[in-house]
Hints:
Blueprint: E1 6-9, E2 17-21, H1 41-44, H2 54-65, E3 69-72, E4 94-95, E5 98-99, H3 108-129, E6 136-143, E7 157-160, H4 168-178, E8 183-185, H5 197-203, E9 209-215, H6 222-242
Parallel strand pairs: 2-3, 2-6, 6-9, 7-8
Antiparallel strand pairs: 1-3, 4-5, 7-9
Helix pairs in contact: 2-6, 4-6
Amino acid sequence: MTYSPFSIHGPDRQGPWVITCDHATNTVPDFIAGGTLGLPDADMGRHIAYDIGAMGTALALGEALNAPVICSNYSRLVIDPNRGADDPTLIPQLYDGTIIDVNRRVDAQERARRIEALYQPYHDAIAGLAHRRDIAFLSIHSFTPQLVGRAPRPWEIGVLSAEDRRIADPLIGNLSNHLTSPVGDNAPYAGFFPGDALSQHAHGPGRPNVILEIRQDLIESPTGQQRWASTLAPHLEAAHKKANL
C-alpha cells in the first residue's frame, strides 16, 4: 500500500463541519530514519507520539455530524502539523521528559524534506476540504491525565478557542450543564499557537472554529470513543445553531 501523509473520511459529506485530527497516529514513515525514531514501543504508544483515542472519536463524530474528517498519518514526533512551519518545536527534540535523539541531528535540509513530504500535503488537503466558506472547523485532540512531575488534571474535556468564541461559549455552557466534572475553558492548553493548524485554516479566513481536548483514558477504547461522540454531537449541533452560523 502506498503511504499517504493523511487520510480523508467521508469527503462528500455535506454537514456544516470539517473535522480535523492533527495527531491521529504514531506512524513513522519508512523514509524517516528507516521508520524508527529510536524510541521504545512504550514511548511510541503514549501521548508524546500521538493523541490516544482522538482519531476514533473524530471518525465517530464525522458520522454523527455528517462531516468530512481529515487525519494526519504521522507521529507528531516526526513533525507536528499543529505548529507553524517556522516554529522551533515543529520537530521536537524533547517531549514530556523523553529525548528524541534522532531529531537532535535534523538539519535545515531534513527539516525542509519533512515539511514537503508530510506537513504541507496535510495542510493542502485541509485547505481542499475547506473551500466552502460556510463551514466550521472542529479539531479533535486528547490529553494525558497527568504530565510527568505535574499535578493530576481535573478536567474530562476542554474547549479551546482563540478570539472567535462563537461556538466555544455556547458549547461550554451546554457541556457545563451536562457534565459533572469541570469543563476546561482554554484548558489544559491555550486555544492558540501562532501558525498552528486552525490559525492557518480558520482564524485567517474568518471561519468559526473550536478545539476539543478529551482526556485520553476516556476515549482509548472504541466504546469510549462512541460514547463521547454520541454525547458531544448534539451539543455541538446546538452550539452551532446558537451561534447563528
